[in-house]
From TrEMBL:
GO terms for molecular function: cytidine deaminase activity; zinc ion binding. Pfam families: dCMP_cyt_deam_1. One of its GO terms (biological process) is pyrimidine-containing compound metabolic process. Belongs to the cytidine and deoxycytidylate deaminase family. Residues 4-125 form the CMP/dCMP-type deaminase domain. This is Cytidine deaminase. The lineage of its organism: Bacteria, Bacillati, Actinomycetota, Actinomycetes, Actinomycetes incertae sedis.
Length: 125
């Protein structure tokens, strides 16, 4: 993989956030992931009246990874619809480790970091 075009990824995540279904929280979240074959997949949060069954943006992005050819994530960013940086929740960090591995890069308030740093000693079967 060549260098990651973070600005392209951030813009894609911000655009995806606009598609969120979030009548309960009002928080629009978008996720964008660069895949190991160079394609880019996005997701947005899809809430649920039960609250707990809400799909985070990373979850729908994971579905897109699988539905559009599979592969692995190499770099991910999450953004609000105003472009603000968002961090994946704990469940979604597990998702990113499983689908991107510990070397997958994540955009964080402290710079670009690996998923190994963001979820140390992750659960493995
Ligand atoms: N949310 C995400 O989309 N990703 C995360 O990693 C954390 C939370 C969404 C879920 C819910 O629709 C809203 O943010 C407020 O929790």
């Amino acid at each position: 993989m060549g260098t990651v075009e973070w600005d392209t990824l951030r813009e894609a995540a911000t655009r995806a956030a606009a598609d969120a279904y979030c009548p309960y929280s009002g928080l629009r979240v978008g996720a964008a992931g660069l895949c190991d074959d160079g394609r880019l997949v996005v997701g947005c949060n899809v809430e649920n009246g039960s609250y707990g069954l809400t799909l985070c943006a990373e979850c729908t992005m994971a579905g897109q990874l699988r539905l559009t050819g599979g592969g692995r994530f190499v770099a991910v960013t999450c953004r609000g619809d105003g472009g603000e940086l968002m961090m994946p929740c704990g469940r979604c960090r597990q998702l990113l480790v499983e689908l991107g591995g510990p070397e997958c890069l994540l955009d964080t308030p402290n710079g670009i970091r690996t998923m190994r740093e963001m979820l140390p000693d992750a659960f493995e079967l």
